[in-house]
Design brief:
Two copies of one chain form a homodimer. By secondary structure, the first copy, chain A, is α/β, with parallel strands linked by helices. Chain A is built from eleven helices and 17 strands. Chain A has helices at residues 44-52, 59-80, 85-97, 104-119, 125-151, 177-186, 203-215, 227-232, 258-268, 299-302, 344-352, and strands at residues 17-19, 24-27, 38-41, 158-162, 190-196, 219-222, 238-241, 245-247, 252-255, 271-275, 281-282, 303-304, 307-308, 315-316, 321-324, 331-334, 337-340. In chain A, 58% of the residues are buried. Chains A and B meet through helix 7, strand 6, helix 8, helix 9 and strand 13 of A and helix 7, strand 6, helix 8, helix 9 and strand 13 of B.
């Protein structure tokens, strides 16, 4: 197949966050694709709200956003108290860390920023701003590298199924799983992308479809329960997803619905690829059992588009993430390389590099 | 556990269709649970529209509705031409049969009504009305019997997961899979019911939750992709679903998302029960490959609650049903008895009774 000439091969149409040098401008992902609106965060409280309320979501994007949030926090703390600002900053770091529980990239970014704050002598803001920009650009570079690595695993004439949104909106830019899909499509290997709509937040319908349409990559949405039937039709050869945290043994936490795709993929001989930077790997957690799984409000299921759909009196079970055991994962693609059939020894070797 | 005294053990709070003696009154299921509204059908054209537009849905309910539709059609045809009405009626029977393609109960009911029309001497309307009422009441009786049979398969302290709506609204009354759940709950065997919201039409969120709340049976909705993770938590021991058509080899067509539950159930050692009257069994179809699967408009996925959510340019893959192979089915519960580990020989024996 040929790739349309009109495709922007850089796939850099959109950024979830832009540091203006003074404030952090976030694209409000809750309103996409109907409305393109931005929220300007001039202080860390606004950043915390934005992460918790899912103005910005996606593990790598949360990490990058939090890093810029530390710059805003340090600026306020340093202005208020040029001597004791580091101690005061700790409260902000804790509040940022608590905004969402599952994505480890959040605390990874905060640890990196804390180290810069600790080492800073005199006015710390230039060093912190440089560090945040570096976290951001490293994430984009990691995604582009993972895109190339993951694409080599995909044979020509392939259909892929993805879940949630793992693109520019979920990261510093370009995307993790969607980055691999972009790279593989540009290389002529992917014929068609299927995307779960991804209830309850509809990240697939609202965000992934929007990104792919902008790139000129053909995409078909499907109901989240339809993936196994799609595999049975022979329409997909790879499931490609991101992750919010990967345990030391290779277990993968990701958006609810991922695990059932992994089970169905194994049943049908479809391969299962996880794409995530090493900032997503948490070697301090032995296995998926140790990963905290966020549960969100029942209203996300009882209401649709802000309108109540379920009868009063009905409850809901609304875990936001699930854990796919390493045994169901064919490949974890990171910026340091690809781990096939992941286990603890292979993950340790990857992270020791 | 104890069953609340307030539970109506008859579970007969609602009927999807009521024959008034003159018209067919249908509960408009598209508007539930927010609005309880009825559509009165005085002629067959309105019945055809109601089936196609999903005012009424659920395979057994479609069959019962179509039977009453034949009464309306025959009345008009007989009034217009007391001699040639039978030939004219054939056009109505064909139009009714074409309203939805997958549910075999539709053509089963039409065949029964056609036979009555063929045998009628003189004024046929009393005989046809009697036959339609009989189809309706037989369906309710079958459901109550299946409820008792299915409940005996379920051990005490069980959690069950169901999909779509298979209750009073989907049948003549009481329900198929939801009938088993009602019976097992009344017998103290079920602790909790989990219900897939069932995109794109949200029959689980809108209809199943509504029915169960009315019955005082605790219900938790979940996203369609979350079922496998629920099983992994050990929260469910049976998946209980209905069917729109069962092939001669025991393959089961049902609402999209059923097949992935069957795959996940097998993976987790969770058992899988299909509850359907024998009017759902189509011995003329060898296997699931021969069952026509309805595909509905992409807009059902691209829009939510009438509002566009996916970017312009995105497509959708929207099969309404899928097929679960007999090998993944632990039990098919019919009014004639239970078939475990179904295959062609067992289905033939069941239908030969």
């Amino acid at each position: 197949m040929t790739v349309p000439n009109s495709v922007d091969r850089d796939f850099d149409n959109v950024r979830a966050m832009v540091w203006t040098g003074d404030t952090l401008r976030l694209l409000d992902q809750r309103r996409l694709p109907a409305v393109t609106a931005f929220i300007d965060c001039a202080e860390v409280g606004a950043v915390i709200d934005a992460i918790r309320d899912m103005v910005v979501r996606g593990a790598p994007a949360i990490g990058v956003t939090a890093a810029y949030g530390v710059v805003l926090a340090a600026r306020a703390r340093y202005r208020a108290d040029p001597v004791g600002w580091r101690e005061a900053l700790e409260a902000d770091l804790r509040a940022l860390a608590a905004a969402r529980p599952t994505a480890i990239n959040l605390s990874w970014a905060l640890d990196r920023m804390r180290a810069v704050a600790t080492q800073a002598t005199g006015e710390p803001l230039v060093a912190l701003e440089t560090a945040a920009r570096q976290i951001h650009e490293e994430d984009v570079a990691a995604n582009r590298h993972m895109g190339r690595l993951g694409a080599t695993l995909i044979d020509s004439g392939t259909g892929v199924l993805t879940h949630c949104n793992t693109g520019s909106l979920a990261t510093g830019g370009f995307g993790t799983a969607l980055g691999v899909i972009r790279s593989a499509y540009a290389a002529g290997r992917i014929d068609h992308v299927f995307a779960d709509e991804t209830r309850p937040w509809l990240q697939g319908a609202r965000l992934t479809a929007w990104e792919l349409v902008q790139d000129g990559i053909p995409v078909s949405l499907l109901a989240d329960g339809a993936g196994a039937w799609l595999m049975r039709q022979g329409k997909v050869h790879w499931v490609v997803v991101g992750s919010d945290r990967i345990a030391a043994n290779g277990d993968v936490a990701n958006k609810i619905g991922t695990y059932h795709l992994a089970v169905a993929a194994r049943h049908h001989g479809v391969r299962f690829m996880v794409v995530a930077p090493t900032s997503t790997v948490d070697m301090a957690v032995e296995s998926g059992r140790g990963i905290p799984i966020e549960t969100r409000a029942a209203s996300e299921l009882l209401e649709v588009g802000g309108r109540r759909v379920a009868a009063q009196g009905a409850g809901a079970w609304n875990p936001v993430f699930d854990v796919t055991p390493a045994a169901l994962v064919d490949a974890i693609v990171t910026e340091r390389g690809v781990v096939t059939q992941p286990d603890r020894a292979k993950m340790e070797a990857l992270m020791a590099d």
